[in-house]
Amino acid sequence: MEEILSKTKIFNNINKTEIKLLLQCINNYQKKYKKGEYILKEGDTTDYLGIVLTGKVIIERTDLWGNNTILGAIFPGEVFGETYAYLENEALMINVLANEDTEVLFLNIKDFIKTCPKACNFHTQLISNLVTIASIKNLNLSRKILHTGPKTIRGRLLSYFSECVKKSKSLSFSIIYNRQQLADYLSVDRSAMSNELSKMKNEGIIEFKKNHFTIIQNEELDAN
């Protein structure tokens, strides 16, 4: 497992030998989840952050009427739940579920910040990595706020596609969400969004097949 963890962001600049020692200092356990199974649910509390070893995890929020909002996706090597684990007895405002068969390693975050009885100097690196991850997540949340800012569905799609083009440095790119997840992420109705995508395709603005998109005309992206 140390080989897998050495490639994750939270163990960045920590070698496999040090990771093995860290796991002896930090309470941890592994668990497997089937596709669609909840890992954490709204209202739960946790002392553990999760590291996705295999599979994919979706972070979502469901309101009283059953409407879902996708807040993000977590891939192998990435973490979730660190904020709630750090804030003692803070109830989750979100649901965490496996988007496919998934394996997770859980680490007790309290063991990160307490003085290590073995004086492991790489605890400091671990804390630094955790701060970096939290900062990146804050940026991703800011991006989502920007994408849901426009009033129209087309405006939200163009905002999201613009980011995809910039990140991939190409007018052709694949997105991480299926149609329902994309609609939830942008906080729009799926049918209305699908209709808008079809209009954009008919107008020669985009081409797409499943989750792969190509921007044909990028004037609207530039204007957006």
UniProtKB/TrEMBL annotation:
Which keywords has UniProt assigned to this entry? DNA-binding, Transcription, Transcription regulation
Against Pfam families, the record matches this protein to: cNMP_binding, HTH_Crp_2
The organism's superkingdom is given as Bacteria
Q: Which residues form the Cyclic nucleotide-binding domain?
A: 10-112
Known InterPro entries for this protein? cNMP-bd_dom, cNMP-bd_dom_sf, Env_Response_Regulators, HTH_CRP, RmlC-like_jellyroll, WH_DNA-bd_sf
Coiled-coil stretches noted in the UniProt entry, renumbered to this chain? none
* Designated name of the protein: CRP-like cAMP-binding protein
